[in-house]
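Lab notebook: predicted structure, single chain.

Context: the supervisor wants predicted structures on file for every construct in the current expression panel, including those that have not yet been purified. This is the next one on the list. No modifications to the sequence; it matches the entry in the shared construct table.
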Amino acid sequence: MWLRYGDLEKKLKGAEQDTTNNRMELMAAIKALESVKSDNIAIDLYTDSKYVMNGITQWIIGWKQKNWKTAAKKPVKNSDLWKKLDKLNQKYQVNWHWVKGHSGDVGNDMADLLANQAMDNA
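Prediction complete. Output recorded below exactly as produced.
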């Protein structure tokens, strides 16, 4: 992931064995928010994952009301990570943005490059 604050930037990457792309997308968002050192700031978080975007801005409300069950009454997948992300999302003023992957967005391209490097080294 690629983080920017004014003129400062930070590059983070990581990988896990035996995981899914959805878990890694969630981990990227969590790690980005965990890296924030100041309280009471607005954060613009960009993701190319509709799973993360829809989950944090829409679906999570119903999941929490249904005790982390889906509309089909099944446990929410990755609820451990969704709970962490929800806590961080409530801690900060996060403005969520979806960007189309592989569309020339500089930040998305950098994050994709770092993710691929991490997978190659896993």
